Amino acid sequence: GYSVIAKFTSADGVAEGADVRISGIPVGTVTSLGLDPKTYLAEVRLTLDAATQIPVDSSIAVRSESLLGGRYLAIEPGAEDKMIAAGGEIKFTQPAVSLEDLIGKLIFTNNQDKK
To answer: Is the pLDDT reported for residue 75 higher than 90?
Structure first.
């Protein structure tokens, strides 16, 4: 396989060894997580199967297995002909959605509607 990185504003719940998937099919794994000291973004290093080439305009998002389950990374392939090289970066990222934040917003909006 080959290694690429992705930087997220939040990689909450992602762990080393987590799946990387395209269309629900595992195509790699998370190999390490760290903090970029310059941008303070979560830097996630992935190893992708050698046969899986990712277009440079692809995006990657943190997804949940289930309400109570772990997290994985989902790649949405782009349309470019140029592919991300080994050691490259997936530039378009979407952080994890916080269940607590969603519940808080729901409660807050419902309380505002009742006034």
So the answer is: yes
